[in-house]
Amino acid sequence: MRASPIHRMKSIISSEFQPMPESVPVQVAWTPATLRALLDKELPGAEVIVVSNREPYIHNFKGERINVQTPASGVVTALEPVMRACRGTWIAHGHGSADRHTVDEHDRLRVPPRAPTYTLRRVWLTEEEQDGYYYGFANEGLWPLCHVAFVRPTFRESDWASYVRVNQRFADAIVEEAVTDSPVVLIQDYHFALLPRMVREKLPKATLVTFWHIPWPNPEAFGVCPWREEIIDGLLGSTILGFHTRFHCNNFLDGVDRFIESRIDRETSSVVLGGEETLVRSYPISIEWPPAQLIDQAPIAVCRSRVRAGLGLADDIHLGVGVERLDYTKGIPDRLRAINTFFDQHPEWVGRFAFVQAAAPSRSKLPDYDRLQAEVVALAESINARHGREGYQPVHLQLRHHEPDEVFELLRAADVCVVSSLHDGMNLVAKEFVAAREDEHGVLILSSFAGASRDLPEALIINPFDEQGTSDTLHRALLIPEEEQRERMHIMRDQVRDRNVYRWVGQMLLDAARVRSHQRIGDISEQNAEDNQPRYRS
Ligand code: F6P
Question: Which residue among 130, 139, 213, 432 has the greatest number of ligand 1 atoms within 8 angstroms of its CB, and so is best to mutate?
């Protein structure tokens, strides 16, 4: 009997995987080497293509010089280390001012810039296409549709037309880049709901693994989308469709049930449409372990002093941090209001606690984001006017892009990290905070509406809509004894280390390998059945 992929995986584990030092022997240490071994053994010869809207490296002109930037994106944070391990091709929208100057005649370049291991293929979009597909349908339609942040989605016929067109452009790019007829394509996020079906039509033998990085709403909420059937049908072109949580998988299956004629198997969590099966699975995303950003970091004590000195704060001040894109789903105004309440109710902390909010301006073309920025600036100013004094500013709002190294320095300097998303697929900042703290100090305050709260229940879990509760939790966080901080952080660090991003993608690739084996067996037995047919003389 042929060994199943799982059995074969076990044999790789015994020969090549290093068990985690202090864990039970069956525990696999997920590393780039693990992933490469998995690819070699489970998917031999398979080419891996990743497609996402956001590119991992953006080239911009700064005067005459060209600068490389790493965007503030969860997708990039998760997939970049994976691609370094898999060495395939990453297809993404090229939108940096110097992007066209850094590619070859096929719009390709080798990355990471310092030690190239994989190919980045850039796809160019016109401003009109970007307005309709990215700002319009993806970010004014699908983004508020899928996040329960009480922002009304906007659906425009012209945005939809642009979304369809751009999905087709990326599907064509995948077909162009594919060297074989059965690549493993990892399709990322809500920008590309139609892509799986489009690619399936051109490359029927491809293994299409789609991951939806944001929540999936219940059918009532999803049902307001005028193109709900098309979106579901597009996604069902996937071999495997992944979400962060089981809850989002169930919402998706309920939506399929409500809007599409198909066969749903709740037992195996799969949908059969037109004879083709899609597995619907949860794969909680994570970060690389240890994060590359830790390599050049100064010791924690140095980070603490450096960050405080940079902000003009005394060395012994307690510091809270928040790090995100400036997005209404992140709950930044709610957090600032809670901080204001905290100072009102605990004046003893005025002068002893300060909060840094790093917020990367994002999608600023859209009115909702513009309004948010104005609100956040006004809130920070009013807290500072109310509670600040000579030589002490309680809230430091940094409205700019922070490079990953800078984010990690901030996280290492903090006593408390606040992740108060109103709704979030996962939220990787929560996991980055944990990974940044080898000293096992610091308290994580985490929204129960972020997927990360399922993985990190040892954080202090809050309802971000509850201002008083958040303020009380901040007070509690500042008083948590060191021993308790250490215990909580220790468990969370184990979780993030063991269930890191290599495991996230490894689980998807293992499932993909299993499906490919099944298909191969199916093809062989069909062929055998044909060969064994009685032949009649004509
Ligand atoms: O949360 C999903 C996600 O794709 C993140 O990776 C990223 O932060 C965001 O949505 C998209 O951001 P942007 O529009 O800046 O690419």
Answer: 213
